[in-house]
Amino acid sequence: MAVPGQLTFTRRLGPTARLLIWLLIGLGCAVLDSRYHMLDGLRSGISLLLQPVRETLRAPSEVAAELGGFFTRHRLLQKERDTLQAERAQLLVSVNAAKELRRENAELRALLQMKTRPGQQVVHAAQMYQGHDWFAQRITLDQGGRAGLRSGLPVVDATGLVGQVTRVYPGSSEVTLVSSREQLTPVFIERTGQRGLAAGSGQSQLELRYMPAQTDIRPGDRLLTSGIDRVYPAGIPVARVSRVSRSQSGPYLRVECLPLAGLDRSRAVLVLIAEPQVIPQ
Questions:
Q1: Which pLDDT score is estimated for 105?
Q2: Structure pTM?
Q3: Going by C-beta distance under 8 Å and a sequence separation of 6 or more, which residues neighbour residue 49?
Q4: Which CATH number describes the domain made up of 120-274?
Q5: Which of 248, 251, 200, 203 is nearest to 223 (CA)?
């Protein structure tokens, strides 16, 4: 039954007709856009609407690229840091070596000046090691009997008296340091000329013994060898007074001294050999 207002013999367009119509519309839009640019506004509006979608789709790739760049830069910075640390270590080694060479040169120059002492022969020696028992206060030198050394010879460095040769081997010798308990060194106070006897304490220190309570001595005074024992030449620096105190139980002062020689750091030393005295006929 027909519905009122509805055409009885209406026919729908077929697919081919609809395709042709849309092709004509598309062709017309293309002609209008290419010749008269009538679709620019529509294109701009659609592009504005699709902008958030494009940003959302592009975000993962940008984040991935940024992360990749971050890790790449991090690795490069780590490599640069490692390279700089290696260069810094090499520079520190070079600086320390230069400081050590400068110290050794200064020590050798001072030793060469001591060599000019009249009536004295010297043997250059180097410290090989301190030995396993440092409390024994002994060191070993690389010169021995073949170099003319013998027991009893004094050993000095650039700053003062080191000790005395106590054992001699063909290619090495053993030196008992001036700070050893076995060593007694006749000295005098450089400022006043007062004589005394410096004894080792066994702990890299010395003690000036048997000094009367009225003796003029103060911290900072230098002690030099007096030469009265005919073992050590006179005038060799031995120690510097570090502390003076009065004993409550005796008539003597307690005088503590620090050796002037580098007992635990000197590498180059001189062994002093006195020339034989010629007695005139």
A1: 67
A2: 0.58
A3: none
A4: 2.40.10.340
A5: 200
